[in-house]
Amino acid sequence: WRYVAMMNDMERLHNLKYFALDMDGTIYLGQKLLPGALDFLQYLKDSGRKHLFLTNNSSKHKHSYVEKLQKLGINATDKEVMTSGEATALYLQAKNMNRVYLLGTPDLEDEFRQHGLTLTCDKPACVVLGFDQTLTYAKLTEACHLLREGVPFIATHPDINCPTNERSGYLPDTGAMLKLIEASTGVTPQLIIGKPHQEIINVLMSTLHCTKEETAMVGDRLYTDIQLATNSGICGVLVLSGESTRSDVATSGAKPTFIFENVGELANALRTADAALGKTPVLV
Q1: Interatomic CA distance for residues 225 and 202, integer angstroms
Q2: Exposed (0-12), middle (13-18) or buried (19+): which is 195, by Cβ within 10 Å?
Q3: CA 83 to CA 206: how far, in whole Å?
Q4: What is the pLDDT of residues 200-258, one digit of tens each?
Q5: Over the stretch 129-176, which tens digit does the pLDDT of each residue have?
Q6: Percent helix, strand and coil across the chain, each to the nearest 5
Q7: What residues have CB less than 8 Å from 77, skipping those under 6 apart?
Q8: Quick one: which of 227, 233, 263, 231 has its CA closest to 51?
Q9: What is the DSSP letter of 34?
């Protein structure tokens, strides 16, 4: 049975063709690349696999992440990064919800406009809350008026706090702002796009034209990355290079499909699986 289980694992790994990748704690930690990151990304390329860096932070344009990755020696492009903000814009675009009242930074406003969305308080199709570091009382008040009038409510992601190098180490994030709005209006969002909600994977699969069976989420957090995989029905790969430990898995409701020390070890497992099956996956 151990041999059968091992071969099943190899088959599962071999069949993975598309990788959604968390960044901080998975590819890098702060300003340093994590062990095996470059080798992992190179093997994905060499074996014909595709990847997309995924972040919940909707306050920044994807260019910010591309620039950081490039400074760390990763030749990333705009097409290889997706923020929860862009995923929200793509979702709204697909649903023809083109008129939006947005609580977001100038970067997020620009992202929405680039996807053909009109930002307005005049008969919007929805109110969208992002990680708005430029939030004002006037913006908040208008959003609450619209929500009380029955305008649908969407949030880019649910994170309560955003890690930072400033003082206490955290900034109030979208989830904290959601609590404020709910306390005032009694309204909760009908839809949240970012991790661990599966909508961001739906957008990713639509963008990459892939299926659940060939898609994996790789990350270091059980309650976001692996919970996203669980919610979406895709392969969840936990790496122990960031926040989570093996002991955390025992008490978590989100169970990873695979656990590796880091993405370098994942690359070696993919090599082994591909070699054992005598072939590398071919993307159609």
Answers
A1: 14
A2: buried
A3: 15
A4: 999 999 989 999 999 999 999 999 999 999 999 999 999 999 989 999 999 999 999 99
A5: 999 999 999 999 999 999 999 999 999 999 999 877 778 788 899 999
A6: 45, 20, 40
A7: 66
A8: 263
A9: P
Question: By C-alpha distance, which of 170, 178, 184 is closest to 197?
Answer: 178
CA atoms of 196 and 230, how far apart (whole Å): 9
The Cα–Cα gap between 223 and 236 comes to 12
Closest CA to 60 of 120, 132, 129: 132
Q: Which two tokens stand for residue 266?
A: 């994942």
Q: CB pairs under 8 A, 24+ apart, for 37-46?
A: 37/74, 37/262, 37/263, 37/264, 38/73, 38/74, 39/264, 39/267, 40/263, 40/264, 40/266, 40/267, 41/74, 43/267, 43/270, 43/271, 44/19, 44/267
Sequence-distant (≥ 6) Cβ neighbours of residue 187 within 8 angstroms: 147, 148, 153, 181
Q: Measured between alpha carbons, how far is residue 23 from residues 54, 217, 272 in Å? A: 7, 11, 24
Rg (CA), the chain: 20
* Cα–Cα distance for residue pair 18/213, rounded to 1 Å: 10
Positive or negative, the CA dihedral 142, 197, 164, 184 is positive
Is there a contact between 157 and 132 (Cβ–Cβ < 8 Å)? no
Residue 83 token pair: 């923020």
CB-based contact 195:87 (threshold 8 Å): no
pLDDT band at 100 (very low <50, low <70, confident <90, very high): very high
